[in-house]
């Protein structure tokens, strides 16, 4: 679902004498409506109420400069989207990791919905190129500002929820967010190896070892398969794009087995 938007597609300044300015405004509106049409085609979702979609990408600076028109900024949608995102991600993690503790789930969810992660999701779809900004915000680089992009992503989720409900939101996140969880993008807060080591030490001494069993695929898309053993007894297998990720997945499988035995 990679976007092909040109960053400057909406970058028109509304300056000049009044008749010329009105002409530029009309041209500007035509441009962003075309951009939103392309965007919907690319994500495979068509909004019933396009005003919600446009509002999700409307920054307060744009509204302040267009007071004579009935524009609404995205702040209320951002508020709603934040809650919807937490709910859907929480449900996904709850179902995917049945043995993970409340504390671990909370830590993982926080990593997924934090600002840097939301910016990554927004950039993947070139959200910055669609944002309606005031001239001042545009000139100071607002289109690339992390906080702004994170807010827009949340606002989009809020708009999508209002327009089409949780099922469509879930489908969208299944394409953009959930695969990154499965790929180990947040493994830095899912330190299964440390958890496994702690569990073994708590229940008695033992020697944990990790072994790379297989490396496959081309250099740019390598996949590793790892096995973890306790006193030479296999506990789990795991695969990943790196040795570290494969070992983490092997440790995760070992943890699941050991916890089931407790």
Automatic annotation (TrEMBL):
The keyword RNA-binding applies. Mg(2+) binds at residues 78, 151, 154. The active site is at 82, 154. It is found in: Cytoplasm. Keywords: Cytoplasm, Endonuclease, Hydrolase, Magnesium, Metal-binding, mRNA processing, Nuclease, RNA-binding, rRNA processing, rRNA-binding, tRNA processing. One of its GO terms (molecular function) is rRNA binding. It comes from the Bacteria. SUPFAM superfamilies: dsRNA-binding domain-like, RNase III domain-like. GO terms for cellular component: cytoplasm. Residues 36-165 form the RNase III domain. Its main location: cytoplasm. Belongs to the ribonuclease III family. Homodimer. This is Ribonuclease 3. It comes from Bacillus wiedmannii.
């Amino acid at each position: 679902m990679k976007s092909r938007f040109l960053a400057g597609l909406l970058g028109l300044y509304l300056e000049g004498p009044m008749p010329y300015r009105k002409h530029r405004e009309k041209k500007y509106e035509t441009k962003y409506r075309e951009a939103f049409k392309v965007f919907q085609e690319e994500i495979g979702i068509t909004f019933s109420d396009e005003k919600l979609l446009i509002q999700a990408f409307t920054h307060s600076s744009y509204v302040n400069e267009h007071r004579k028109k009935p524009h609404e900024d995205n702040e209320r949608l951002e508020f709603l989207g934040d809650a919807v995102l937490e709910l859907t991600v929480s449900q996904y993690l709850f179902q995917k990791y049945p043995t993970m503790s409340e504390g671990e789930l909370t830590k993982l969810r926080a990593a997924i919905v934090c600002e840097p992660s939301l910016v990554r999701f927004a950039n993947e779809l070139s959200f910055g190129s669609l944002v309606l900004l005031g001239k001042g915000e545009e000139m100071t680089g607002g289109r690339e500002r992390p906080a702004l992009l994170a807010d827009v992503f949340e606002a989009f989720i809020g708009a999508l929820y209002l327009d089409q409900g949780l099922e469509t939101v879930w489908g969208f996140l299944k394409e953009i967010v959930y695969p990154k969880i499965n790929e180990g993008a947040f493994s830095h807060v899912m330190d299964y190896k440390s958890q496994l080591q702690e569990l073994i030490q708590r229940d008695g001494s033992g020697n944990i070892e990790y072994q790379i069993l297989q490396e496959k695929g081309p250099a740019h898309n390598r996949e590793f398969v790892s096995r973890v053993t306790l006193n030479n007894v296999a506990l789990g297998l795991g695969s990943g794009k790196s040795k570290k990720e494969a070992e983490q997945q092997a440790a995760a499988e070992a943890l699941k087995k050991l916890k089931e035995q407790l």
